[in-house]
């Protein structure tokens, strides 16, 4: 064991190196600031070229400045002592000295990969791997791994008990942190996997899937910045709470150009944060919705006129229901509904002209007929009523009134009732967003101009429609593609959600992370097929993470016992960190649950430094909200959450209220409970009026 004095000497020596790196970082920041200033001055030169130059210069310099600022905290975190030569220092970004010699290697550079890949079994030339723990720019601790004792010089000092254990034991706050200093080999393999096709990362709870996926996004940007920055990287997670939890990780790795969206915000212009109750949610997520929405987007609505009569000279021209239906089919064969909006007048005019027989009319010819028609408000009104531009959100709003008629047996009575109730005057739920997106694509966009359309007679090219007042931002569907799509908690995506994200990743490479055992989707096979369809045959590369870094081994043992009994085929992780704290179970009469939960929350707040969560079944939430109101108001470390809201999150301590009630609340109850049990890093208490979950073997 190293003496404290020797450790202090090592810290002081590392501090002097770290200081040198910060001096260079500050110098680079000064240069970037000077460039921003100079850029603005160029803007005053007065000619257009000056402005373009200014914009480019200011943009580049500002970006550099943002990256430098973001990388400031804990800039230097690693040192490698190889058998030969100078040590290599690893950091969040690369830094060179005034002579362009490397001071700090970017963690994503090939020269840094050995920092993560070396193990005692295969040291790959690394004698000692050192992690520097910093607070701001001050080195506060050192953790060493001696990987090749035989090659170590006699005077080599080895400090600490290993960086990983130290990092895992830290208190948890409201934000996820980067793990760049302690990425493990199997995680590094997934982070640095080539960007082709789809990289699928599986593994049990707490194995680092989320954190690995985020580091992978930063890695991809580093390796092919041009492609991924211009094409865009989209990161999709389950909820707004989750997105807030992970939003600091990428900036702290120097990346600010990634789009983070929760599932309720994937579609531009629509924001949803509320889940539907399970029956409606399952119906909305099901693939069965596709045909129903197709009917909605292509069939006329109750307001669509079913006949048209027009007097022209000596003729009465008629379009009856059957003929109009034929014309509708004809138009929809050409393209999507909105795309053929400009063609509708021509198709109708043609069908009318074919019926013109009168002598006088024939003499004036088709041109004359069209001249009259386009100026006649009766025709204009009819076209507008028969084939109006349609907006996806408006069409979605018509669902409650139309669902029964267009479902054609796709949904059971109970499902139809649940669907209608869910839409009762409500704004879109998270489960509605993919339906709106589906409608957007089914409808397509109204083309901006039709001048070049050879099929449309010249009179009809200028056919004026009235301006719509309520045009929505959801109309545009041309801007949805990304270069890389990253899906977190992928096991929970419904088939309709897979279709929605699939449209954004047609030409993208993908990273998909998830754990089937934590899925709350009731029909996994259907979702799996939708995932395969979304990837459109892109090659899949699979990685599995095996070690649980979140829970104490005692907590994970309990969760794994539940999984073995209730979740066939669960991918169980290895727990590594024993704390000596067994999870507690309190059995109390139903009437005393709320008080017991509150008392336990107050007790655990006193025992841990970081975050505490009370997880409630839906049925108990209002009661617990009342009971905990005062405690919640005076402790911002404490949160009250539904089971589904805890997905992907973690807390120092968790109290799970009424497990048996929670398990009974949905078809995926056991899997959801497994998620809840695996959220705590240090302390876990279950409080229930029954304890069936502790021994029950579900059928
Ligand atoms: N190499 C590592 N070094 C230090 N901490 C790590 C490492 N890998 C993961 N962790 C920590 O373990 C915890 C769990 O990680 P993460 O949330 O990414 O796991 P997950 O597999 O996505 O979990 P879940 O499936 O349960 O949501 C986080 O606090 C993360 O920072």
Automatic annotation (TrEMBL):
UvrD-like helicase ATP-binding domain: residues covered: 182-552
Pfam families: AAA_19
Binding residues annotated for ATP, in chain numbering: 203-210
Keyword Glycosyltransferase attached: no
Keywords carried by this UniProt record: ATP-binding, Helicase, Hydrolase, Nucleotide-binding
InterPro entries hit by this protein: DNA_helicase_UvrD/REP, P-loop_NTPase, UvrD-like_ATP-bd
Protein name: AAA family ATPase
Organism encoding this protein: Aeromicrobium alkaliterrae
Organism lineage string: Bacteria, Bacillati, Actinomycetota, Actinomycetes, Propionibacteriales
